[in-house]
Amino acid sequence: MLILVAYAGHQMGWMNPRRAAYNILNATGSAILGYIAFHPFQVGFVVLEVTWTIISLYALFRPQAQS
């Protein structure tokens, strides 16, 4: 649900994908789904969700561009 809230918020223009809230929702939602994918182990689902979590965490903590 958290991933869907972030996605819908972005698509509707309510959330900026460069802001922390968007990336926190994505990282948390994908981490939960990644955990669920390990029981029983579903390799495709695990790869998708772990990758999604890593990308979201990178976006959350990446250095901000200086203007």
Provide a concise account of the structure shown.
The chain is mainly α and 67 residues long. It is built from three helices and no strands.
Give the helix/strand layout.
Blueprint: H1 2-11, H2 20-37, H3 43-61
Helix pairs in contact: 1-2, 2-3
- Profile the largest sheet: none
Number of helices: 3
Approximately how much beta-strand content do the residues carry? Answer: under 5%
Order of helices and strands: HHH
Query: What fraction, in percent, of the residue positions are helical?
Result: over 70%
N- to C-terminal separation?
35 Å
Given helix and strand content, the structural type is mainly alpha
Question: How many structural units, i.e. domains?
Answer: 1
Label the overall shape: globular
Average residue pLDDT: 89
Spans of at least 5 consecutive residues with low confidence: none
Number of strands: 0
Any idea what the radius of gyration is?
Answer: 13 Å
